[in-house]
Input
Amino acid sequence: QVQLVEAGGGLVQPGGSLRLSCAASGSFLSIDVMGWYRQAPGKQRELVAAVTNGGTTNYADSVKGRFTISRDNAKNTVYLQMNSLKPEDTAVYYCNAQIATILWNDYWGQGTQVTVSS
Output
């Protein structure tokens, strides 16, 4: 049973920082792309950032220069360092990973709330 377990959300003031982490556990062969999505109330889920197992990254325009995605392949963990947070970053953040067991499948974490407010 493959699981993605997230940690690190919370309440932060505008301009502050948070670091999210997401660890994959269970029995699997390989992990390809790992990424973070977010969903604000009344909005569709959107890609925030993604990183391949080779280290190639991709960011939403709205977070470029403020957020940094990284991964530790030895720990099967992906991180999202969020700096200069804005109220519009408030959302539930979901970890996503493409993981191979017998077949390749998409897996999602349970979501972690990030609230940016004074």
About this structure: The chain has a mean pLDDT of 96.
